[in-house]
Design goal:
Elements lengths: L3 E12 L3 H9 L11 E12 L3 E5 L6 H7 L8 E6 L2 E2 L5 H10 L1 E4 L11 H5 L1 H6 L3 H14 L15 H14 L4 E5 L7 H18 L2 E6 L2 H7 L2 E6 L2 E6 L1 H6 L4 H6 L5 H4 L2 H4 L6 E3 L4 H11 L3 E5 L5 E6 H10 L15 E2 L8 H6 L4 E4 L5 E5 L1 H8 L18 H13 L5
Parallel strand pairs: 3-8, 3-9, 6-7, 7-8, 11-12, 14-15
Antiparallel strand pairs: 1-2, 1-4, 4-5, 9-10, 12-13, 15-16
Helix pairs in contact: 6-7, 14-15, 14-18
Length: 424
Amino acid sequence: MNDTALKAEGLYKVFGRNAQDAVKKLQNGASRDDLGGATAAVIDASFEVKKGEIFVVMGLSGSGKSTLIRMLNGLHPQTAGTVTIGEDSITGVTPAKLRDIRRHKISMVFQHFALLPHRTVIDNVAYGLEIQGMSKEERLKRALKITGVVGLSGWEEKYPSELSGGMQQRVGLARALAADTEVLLMDEAFSALDPLIRREMQDQLLELQSELGKTIIFITHDLNEAMYIGDRIAVMRDGRIVQIGSPEDVLTNPANDYVEQFVQDVDRAKVLTAESVMRKPFAVAHENSGPAAALQAMRENAISALYVIKRDRTIVGWIRDRDVMDLVRKGEKSIASVIQTDHGAVSKDTPLADLFIPSLEAALALAVTDDKDRLVGVVPRVTLLAALGGEPDAATSAEPVVEPLPSEVVDKVLDASTEKGGTL
């Protein structure tokens, strides 16, 4: 099954005379400044966007990102290269075929809303469906449903001039969603909004995405916005795509000095997750382990506490060396009586910003679990701090939050247990 919603291959966009000659020069290694008066806006751009993905293209002004997105729906014809949406190529098609693809395959949300001022909210939302030829009753029914989805219930009969900027952008988004196309293009869709409204729209877009699973290509110059909403990010510079990767990849493994400088001011606490900084646990105890075995594991790894897990690696709780030592002295065969269940584990998808309080409250390195509550790693406090400082690999060991007992004390207790016939 093909899960590719859109594919771009070798895209070039050159403005001015002798555009094809300029493409050949670029392909042979010429710079943008050596094209004889032609201007290269996009150079050899290739990428695939998966179905249900938010693919963000970001870059500074003049990087070519807005030209690129207009090539994806044919507003700017490609000088070279191809664009395929699903099974349909938009390269070299007739104007009639291109209009049909725009109506049914790909829609767009513009930066400046592009609403029809003489139409009400409901009629603006239904406009794309009208162009598709849908009956009035059916299109108004669908438009009414979508206005509710984007939070415009009660505003259907208002005109754009009666709405705030944020509400006008909701209308533009609703119009694109109502068309129910395979791909949604968003060109700097939130950049004209005030910061608080902008963040609200970002949150709503993610909420809608979780519900509708649309394929979205989002253009922005705001790195934090790209990191917040993107599943993958393409970074552009001087018309070229210089890196494609997840927000975490771009932040932690920049492809070159430009990307590294570009991302240096990103709030890492909101982008990186527990999974990106976690370490494998040095040692764990199984729920059926004996006290001597648990104490031996702590001694060998110079740690003061262990997580206790079941055979499927789900967490039961944690144990502390002092408590386990008492069990060894008493000749107990089980650690069950000293297991503490307040382990405070976090999901591997938890942002670093949400790890501070759990990390402070944890008696040992913070446990990280997968979607089945299985222990997959730990985040020592020192590792968390190092990651926020831009050095995710600076700390590779778990720190004992609870002060460990001296090794000679542990050895004496274990030796005494062995002399009494105890086993590890």
